[in-house]
TrEMBL record:
Annotated gene: pdxT
Coiled-coil blocks: none
Gene Ontology terms, MF aspect: glutaminase activity; pyridoxal 5'-phosphate synthase (glutamine hydrolysing) activity
Protein name: Pyridoxal 5'-phosphate synthase subunit PdxT
Assembly and interaction partners: In the presence of PdxS, forms a dodecamer of heterodimers. Only shows activity in the heterodimer.
Keywords for this protein: Glutamine amidotransferase, Hydrolase, Lyase, Pyridoxal phosphate
Protein family per UniProt: Belongs to the glutaminase PdxT/SNO family.
Binding positions for L-glutamine per the UniProt entry: 47-49, 113, 141-142
Organism: Saccharopolyspora griseoalba
Pathway recorded for this protein: Cofactor biosynthesis; pyridoxal 5'-phosphate biosynthesis
Statement: the UniProt record of this protein carries the keyword Nucleotide-binding: no
Function: Catalyzes the hydrolysis of glutamine to glutamate and ammonia as part of the biosynthesis of pyridoxal 5'-phosphate. The resulting ammonia molecule is channeled to the active site of PdxS.
Length: 210
């Protein structure tokens, strides 16, 4: 049985552990560098990327985790987890730099934090997800979107146009799920949708394929 870690410094840890276990893998919370040993994959949950950056330093996890990711450890990040997996981060509507966030550089993308702006800073919508048959219900909470992707990054989902996003028209068409090799990221929170583990299963398939 594959063992998948869940970075457990902050954020939606329990929901990812539960979703992974429903997919038939062993889920292990990770707070210390030693707990990275023996993992076949790792999930970085949602939460707050500035806090996660600070805690990675305090727990001496930043460099060990960065190295494991650079070595090809399969990884999945949701929301703040997507921000942490990215190569570069900017902030809000004006795209200012986000100096308080130090991403781990596992995914060749630039991510914009809190991208959706005030009117729709949290919303839910159904969206098509490449590799999953039927639309996925997506919960966005002060979510990022992906501004730029490098070669080798595939787009798995974009925000559909519709009433959920019409208050901020530039949100439609934005990239909200990507994959590069064994690294997957979503701007939304599949772990909050009970009874639907399809995105986690998609990640577990990536893990099993390694
Ligand atoms: N806005 C948060 C951040 O910048 C992410 C929110 C989330 O993970 N739900 O880290």
């Amino acid at each position: 049985t594959p063992v998948v870690g869940v970075l457990a410094l902050q954020g939606g840890v329990a929901e990812h552990v539960a979703a992974l276990e429903r997919c038939g893998v062993t889920a292990r919370p990770v707070r210390r560098a030693e707990e990275l040993d023996g993992l076949h994959g790792i999930v970085l949950p949602g939460g707050e990327s500035t806090t996660m950056t600070r805690l990675l330093d305090i727990f001496d996890l930043y460099e060990p985790l960065r190295e494991r990711l650079a070595d090809g450890l399969p990884a999945y990040g949701s929301c703040a987890g997507m921000i942490m997996l990215s190569a570069a981060v900017c902030d809000g509507g004006d795209g200012a730099a986000a100096p308080a966030v130090r991403p781990l550089g596992a995914l060749d993308v630039t991510v914009r934090r809190n991208a959706f702006g005030r009117q729709v800073d949290s919303f839910e919508t159904d969206l098509d997800f490449a590799g999953v048959d039927d639309p996925v219900h997506a919960v966005f909470i002060r979510a990022p979107w992906v501004d730029k992707i490098g070669d080798g990054v595939s787009v798995l989902a974009t925000v559909p146009d519709g009433p959920d996003v019409s208050e901020r028209s530039e949100a439609a068409g934005r990239i909200v799920a990507v994959q590069q090799g064994a690294v997957l990221a979503t701007a939304f929170h599949p772990e909050l949708v009970e009874g639907d583990e399809r995105v986690h299963r998609y990640f577990v398939q990536i893990v099993r394929a390694r």
